[in-house]
Amino acid sequence: MPPLHVEPEELRVVDRAAAGDSAARRALFEQHREAAYRTALRITRREEDALDVVQDSFIRAFDRLAEFQRESGFRTWLLRIVANRALDVLRTRKVRQAVPLDPGDESRGPQLAAPDTSAPPGQELERQELAQRLRQALEALPADQRAVFALYATGEMTYGEIAAALEIPIGTVMSRLYHARRRLFEILPDLATPGVLANTGRAT
Amino acid sequence: MSRPVDNLDDALQAAISRGLDALTPDQVERLAAILDERPDLAAQLADRIPVIEPQLADALAQAERQSLPSTGAWSRAWDRIADAQPKVARRTRVGPQILRLWRPLAAVAACLVLAAAWWIGTPRPPTAPPLRLATDLEIDRLEVYDGDTPFVVSIGDSGAVIIWVLEERS
Questions:
Q1: Which domain holds residue A40?
Q2: I want to staple A17 with a disulfide (CB 3.0 to 4.6 A). Which of A24, A129, B13, B49 is the partner?
Q3: Cβ B35–A170 below 8 Å, yes or no?
Q4: What is the mean pLDDT of residues A122-131?
Q5: By three-state DSSP, how is residue B148 classified?
Q6: Domain residue limits, chain B
Q7: Is the pLDDT of residue A15 over 80?
Q8: Residue B85 forms contact with A (CB below 8 Å)
Q9: Do residues A157 and B49 touch, judged by C-beta distance below 8 A?
Q10: Is there a domain that residue A144 lies in?
Q11: Measured on CA atoms in the order A180, A182, A188, A193, is the torsion positive or negative?
């Protein structure tokens, strides 16, 4: 499969942003903030950390726009920064774990978007229940598998781009993704394609 | 149900064409180890986007939708990003390009002012007296050493006068 096609219009916006055009930077932020946030959230698992990661990542991205090689889209390049920043947060959190955060300090978290109320009440409950189980399943993944899964779940990044973003070999990406998916589907078999969990035997 | 593949070449091709789920855990581990050591084989996989099932993508989107920041939170996030932008980047918004040149222009102007002050304040020697042919001068005696051009310094009522003596040629 060929690399992602980079739109000329996007490159023009990136050029303007690189020249310091604030409107162009804001356009890039508004276009890619949600993908960045979802990726950060999958890795950090905390909403307040995810929003901090998004802010830091955009600041870094705008500072380094001159380094953007344009071989991939801006989003892929940005998500690479997001993933690395989110992993930094995880490492810092491990160091800080001896000092518990104040659970009563709700001002740290971002204000969240209103829940989707368009679905019928019963269906909405089912979706919320599935969403909750999926969050728990993601939390159960080891951090290295979760990072690979976070970039894979964008649906836009190649094996090579994931490997470059996380600075690991392609074979390791493949292995971590394989095990992450199997663990998720073991917890949530209703999301698995039939046959996914069938190949458990040893090859000859 | 996917059919397990028999060897690593087939495993790689199966991963490319049918996805990772075509492989057993053991095949994945062996293939991963080989790909990590063989960039030429890894290149076959490098440009592939691993497939994500629609139902998994939908469930992820649903799970994360509840955690998305509000419009206000996004707005505050942008404000912090904009505040962190380097001043050189924001300067382009506030005025024409000429504003970016004020430092070099000011430096050039300062240099011109200094040069003018130096020119005005520096004492300069008086204008040199004009050369003229001495017609009413009598030299009694002149000694010349090593053929050097001789000159005479005469101090009279009108000050010092230097006289170069030129050899008369006919």
A1: 8-99+121-191
A2: A24
A3: yes
A4: 74
A5: coil
A6: 1-68
A7: yes
A8: yes
A9: yes
A10: yes
A11: positive
